[in-house]
């Protein structure tokens, strides 16, 4: 990376990212690419298609059920029931439920609720994946900012090293001053290596999330930011309305509600109409096919009182599901409020750090000049250079935190698709 590009990146980091400041427009593209290829999303989409098929299967329960039966008997010639009839009997049946006590309706509604749950699960997977991409990108962003700051500090220390070497050769500075600057150079190099390692680790995570290689050059193309965010309460209300996690838990509670109805209906008798055509007769040989129509009632209560305990169990699961919904809404509200407060605080902190950066730059320059005239020690010059780098690193850290918070709030409050499409 050239000195000009490093300076450009540092300027972008110092500009802030919360409400209208910059970062790469490639981030929405990275999220979109990950959402289109990641196996977690594809797996949830397959389960959603299975749930859609389940709704179709539940609808078919209203239709007649065809069946075919074929039996063959082997009996003694003196058997009064089967000895004189046909050895093979085939029966075609068509049975239509007339009344099930609400079981079929509950089954259909449960399948529809399960479909809604599966669609919400897809959106939960997409949201979680989008946030993971943002987190990986933020790690790269932070590593890049700190690398720029440490590289700038390293170049400054190398210039100071040359300055102190000349002064030592001229006999105006002790050898210990050179030892001090050498120690600071190695320390800065170590910090630079750590920052570059953070970048590489983040790029590796992005590569795994996108299933393709991602480079720093790709992430440095241009700048953009998510849509400006509103007041905290409005964002909380919006997040609760669009949250796929809450929607999934609500759908799960609906599934349990219809499970209760289905269990209750299973205790009611079922009235059905059955038509059948029989070929062959075990009692009389050579008779023509027979047609029959039945109206019947059947019931199944399960073993002992298990039907009633199954209802109690379903009610308890429904109560638990409703409690999960309430808990999820509270947790989401806490997260949005917390992120909003941190983002607002971070924005003010970023402005303060930018002012501190100007002060640190002025102090570092002034102390370097005062050292030359004997008003400051070499240690003062070294400390001023280190403090300047520390302020730049803090700006990189706060800018990274603002980037993550702004995107996470945008995703939570607006949804993944809206957050990506409204990015500026």
Strand segment tally: 4
Mean pLDDT: 86
Strand arrangement within the widest β-sheet reads 1-2-3-4
Measured on Cα atoms, how large is the radius of gyration? 37 Å
User: Tell me, what's the shape?
Assistant: elongated
Topology order in helix (H) and strand (E) letters: HHHEEHHHHHEEHHH
| Unreliable runs | 1-24
Give a verbal description of the structure.
The chain has helices at residues 3-15, 26-37, 39-60, 103-170, 175-210, 216-219, 232-242, 244-266, 306-372, 378-414, 416-421, and strands at residues 65-72, 88-99, 270-279, 290-298. With 424 residues, the protein is α+β, with helices and mostly antiparallel strands. The chain has a four-stranded antiparallel β-sheet with strand order 1-2-3-4, with no helix packed on it. The radius of gyration is 37 Å and the shape is elongated.
């Amino acid at each position: 990376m050239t000195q000009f590009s490093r300076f450009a990146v540092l300027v972008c980091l110092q500009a802030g990212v919360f409400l209208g400041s910059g970062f790469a427009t490639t981030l929405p593209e990275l999220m979109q690419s990950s959402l289109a290829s990641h196996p977690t999303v594809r797996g949830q989409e397959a389960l959603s298609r299975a749930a859609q098929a389940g709704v179709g299967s539940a609808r078919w329960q209203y239709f007649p059920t065809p069946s075919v039966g074929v039996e063959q008997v082997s009996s003694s010639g003196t058997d009064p029931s089967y000895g004189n009839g046909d050895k093979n009997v085939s029966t075609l049946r068509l049975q239509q439920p007339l009344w099930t006590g609400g079981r079929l309706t509950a089954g259909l509604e449960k399948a529809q609720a399960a479909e809604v749950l599966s669609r919400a699960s897809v959106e939960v997977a997409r949201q979680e994946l989008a946030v993971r991409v943002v987190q990986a990108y933020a790690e790269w962003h932070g590593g890049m900012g700190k690398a720029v700051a440490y590289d700038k500090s390293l170049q400054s220390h190398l210039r100071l090293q040359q300055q102190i070497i000349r002064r030592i050769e001229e006999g105006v500075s002790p050898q210990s001053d050179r030892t001090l600057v050498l120690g600071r150079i190695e320390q800065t190099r170590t910090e630079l290596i750590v920052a570059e390692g953070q970048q590489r680790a983040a790029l590796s995570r992005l590569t795994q999330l996108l299933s393709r290689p991602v480079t720093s050059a790709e992430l440095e193309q241009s700048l953009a930011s998510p849509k400006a965010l509103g007041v905290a309460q409005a964002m909380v209300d919006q997040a609760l309305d669009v949250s796929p996690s809450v929607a999934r838990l609500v759908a799960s509670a609906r599934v349990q509600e219809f499970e209760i109805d289905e269990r209750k209906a299973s205790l009611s008798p079922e009235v059905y109409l059955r038509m059948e055509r029989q070929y062959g007769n075990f009692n009389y040989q050579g008779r023509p096919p027979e047609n029959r129509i039945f109206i019947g009632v059947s019931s199944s209560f399960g073993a002992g009182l298990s039907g009633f305990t199954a209802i109690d169990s379903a009610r308890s699961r429904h109560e638990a599901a409703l409690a999960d919904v309430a808990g999820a809404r509270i947790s989401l509200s806490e997260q949005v409020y917390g992120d909003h407060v941190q983002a607002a605080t971070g924005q003010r902190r970023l402005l303060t750090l930018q002012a501190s950066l100007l002060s640190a730059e002025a102090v570092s320059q002034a102390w370097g000049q005062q050292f030359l005239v004997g008003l400051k020690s070499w240690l003062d010059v070294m400390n001023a250079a280190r403090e300047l780098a520390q302020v730049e690193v803090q700006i990189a850290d706060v800018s990274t935190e603002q980037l993550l918070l702004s995107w996470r709030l945008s995703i939570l409050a607006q949804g993944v698709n809206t957050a990506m499409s409204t990015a500026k």
